[in-house]
Amino acid sequence: MVKVGAALLIAGISIAAGYLIYWFVAEAVESMPGPLKGAVIAAAIGFLLLLLAVIRDRLKPSKEEEELKGVKQ
Question: In whole angstroms, what is the distance from residue 16 CA to residue 20 CA?
Fold first, then answer.
């Protein structure tokens, strides 16, 4: 019951936040000049790529962890 409630809460907040971000970006982009739109899009794409790289590096086990995997304490 708790897991379902937490999942619904997270889903609702995520959907609402996503819609608000979409609305804000759509309104802000309408009044921006072309070069500024390109700069904002480039910065957003760069941020997402860096975020994905950090997430990938954190999830990938390091060489040291691989070497110590079979060692028992």
Answer: 6
Amino acid found at 27: E
> pLDDT means per 10 residues in the chain (73 residues)?
94 96 85 86 94 90 70 67
Q: Between the CA atoms of 36, 49, 24 and 7, what dihedral angle is there, to the nearest 10 degrees?
A: 180
What's the one-letter identity of residue 3? K
Please state, as a whole number, how many other Cβ atoms lie within 10 Å of the Cβ of residue 55.
10
29, 37 in Cβ contact below 8 A?
Answer: yes
In the prediction, which pLDDT does 71 show? Answer: 67
